[in-house]
Design a protein that fits this description.
Keywords: DNA-binding, Sigma factor, Transcription, Transcription regulation. 72% of the residues lie in helices and 0% in strands. The protein is mainly α.
Length: 181
């Protein structure tokens, strides 16, 4: 451990104990080191972006100073914070590529026709209904059978089928609303 490592740790201990001059000296000594680290990791980035990362790091050191183990050297702890702040800054910046949609409109156009996922999505939603409701909706909607055929299959009269269908559709609508919330 070098002398500056010992100085940083001693100044942080003094700063935590209330010595404002030692704490100010620590931050003053830390800033150029952090600038070098950020610039090395973010080569080619805007200097203002780098300075924002340095300031974020100094602020994090200040806010989290109570979590530092004073028996350990300060420098590795500060470097870990700087590394995380650099990663966070890159994530915030992102790597967005903007292309005009008009250039790809013909290639992206969907074919006319039914949605290939519609039946599977409807089936998963219907499967969440109670047994008779699910069987009724599966017969009428997914299998596209008629009222008479589904009524005979499920042992229901035409009037009973209409009432059961109405109730099943209400339950289905409630499930759909719950999914949106």
């Amino acid at each position: 451990m070098g002398r500056s490592d010992e100085d940083w740790s001693a100044w942080m201990r003094a700063g935590i104990a209330g010595d404002q001059r030692a704490y100010a000296l620590l931050l003053t000594q830390m800033a150029p080191v952090l600038r070098g680290i950020v610039r090395a990791r973010a080569s080619g980035m805007d200097p203002a972006w780098c300075e924002d990362v340095v300031q974020d790091t100094l602020l994090a050191v200040h806010l989290k100073r109570g979590t530092w183990d004073s028996a350990q050297p300060l420098r590795p702890w500060v470097y870990a914070i700087a590394r995380h702040k650099i990663v966070d800054a890159f994530r915030r910046r992102g790597r967005a590529v903007h292309l005009p949609v008009e250039d790809f409109a013909e290639a992206l156009a969907a074919e006319d026709g039914p949605d290939p996922f519609e039946a599977a999505d409807a089936g998963r939603l219907i499967d969440r209904l109670p047994g008779r409701d699910a069987a009724l909706l599966r017969c009428l909607a997914l299998e596209a059978r008629g009222y008479e055929d589904c009524g005979a299959r499920l042992g229901m009269t035409p009037g009973g089928l209409r009432v059961a269908l109405h109730r099943a559709l209400q339950r289905l609508a409630r499930l759909r609303l719950e999914d949106r919330v």
